[in-house]
Design a protein that fits this description.
The chain is 38% helix and 18% strand. The protein is built from 13 helices and ten strands.
């Protein structure tokens, strides 16, 4: 759900009112560094993007069982947070970094900011999400960047909502779609990558030429697109948004139900399942961490069943472990994306900058 969605992934969770965790369970003080000859540190620091969240009772249970106090240091969006860790390489601000996704993974690995660690629960993680065989990072959650549609609009107009990327360039959907800038937004970049995955390096530019001709609107970020321009969201309705199609997440409909006032029986928005790009978020032990043992324990916790089943309603992302169950809100109002577009992290790393530059020249300028 991190981004980047996401957040990545996971911008949606932040936008619908997730509270900030300055220091979860932070009543205890650090009892010293983990350096040789000094008392073992009882504080473990998680550096993350702004959308990280966990139920207090779930985190307290980990703290009680492990003996560690968790401090959460939020650092803006995923890209900004990763940049800070690269700049402080070797002298990190914390012990574990959470929130780098597959669009930025190679950049993180190439800069060598992580120490390899194979988590105890790795066998429970679905193998398709394990993208680093050296275990410098561990997959924590997944989510899908997809076009969402306003159900009421299409019902009123008696038009079938689009379901594929090809549909979006058809005349009946002219001037209906708003997306985020691929240069400044995780979901915007994910949507660009969906087109790359679908049409290849030779075909995606032609697709965007047609999409531009069909009236796609580009705004800076998810908040503006979803909560101001999109007619189907609670925020968009208040802002009198007039675009019934928006690039968001497959988990947006459950969030609209959960935070609806009053809570609707059915989600007011739907998902165009053939427009999606799969995002995977990772966490890793930071090289130079002051509390390596605490960091390892925290990583074990992040792939544990308790945290994995807590995530969906906290960050609106999907678990990556085999036995984790989704809450009823997700199974009733969410959709499962069977065949999302994907692009290999190394291919993204090699081409991301030139793709974004070409996209900007083609669509924005």
């Amino acid at each position: 759900m991190s981004t980047t969605r996401k957040i990545a992934g996971a911008a949606l969770a932040a936008a619908v009112g997730v509270s900030t965790l300055a220091a979860c369970g932070g009543a205890k003080k650090d009892e010293g560094s983990a350096a040789s000859g000094s008392p073992k540190s009882k504080t473990v620091t998680l550096v993350s993007h702004d959308s990280f969240n966990v139920t207090d009772t779930v985190l307290k249970e980990f703290e009680q069982q492990s003996g560690y106090t968790v401090k959460v240091l939020k650092s803006g969006d995923a890209g900004a947070a990763l940049n800070q860790e690269i700049l402080t390489k070797g002298s990190p601000r914390g012990d574990v970094f959470f929130g780098v996704d597959n669009t930025l993974l190679s950049r993180a690995l190439d800069n060598g900011i992580f120490t390899p660690y194979e988590v105890k629960g790795l066998a429970d993680v679905k193998p398709e999400y394990v993208l680093d065989q050296q275990h410098r990072v561990t997959p924590i959650d997944s989510g899908d960047i997809c076009v969402n549609y306003d159900k009421a609009y299409f019902a009123d107009k008696k038009i079938a909502p689009p379901q594929t990327l090809d549909d979006l360039i058809k005349p009946e959907y002219k001037n209906l779609l708003v997306t985020e800038n691929a240069a400044t937004s995780s979901p915007g970049l994910g949507f660009l990558l969906a087109s790359v995955g679908k049409y290849g390096d030779e075909g995606w530019k032609d697709y965007w030429t047609k999409l531009k001709a069909n009236g796609v609107e580009v705004v800076d970020g998810w908040e503006q697109a979803y909560n101001e321009r999109f007619s189907g969201s609670a925020g968009g309705k208040k802002a009198k948004g007039d675009r019934p199609l928006v690039v968001s997440y497959a988990s947006s409909p459950p969030a609209e139900v959960l935070y609806g006032e009053p809570q609707p029986a059915e989600a007011p928005t739907g998902v165009s399942t053939g427009t999606c790009f799969r995002q995977v978020e990772f966490a890793g032990l930071l090289k130079g961490a002051k509390n390596e043992e605490g960091g390892k324990a925290l990583l074990d916790f992040l792939v544990g069943k308790k945290f994995q089943e807590d995530m969906p309603l906290q960050m609106f992302v999907n678990p990556v472990t085999k036995d984790a169950q989704l809450p009823e809100l997700f199974t009733k109002h969410g959709v499962v994306i069977e065949k999302p577009e994907t692009v290999a992290p190394e291919t993204i790393a090699k081409n991301r900058e030139q793709w974004v530059k070409a996209w900007s020249s083609l669509v924005v300028k």
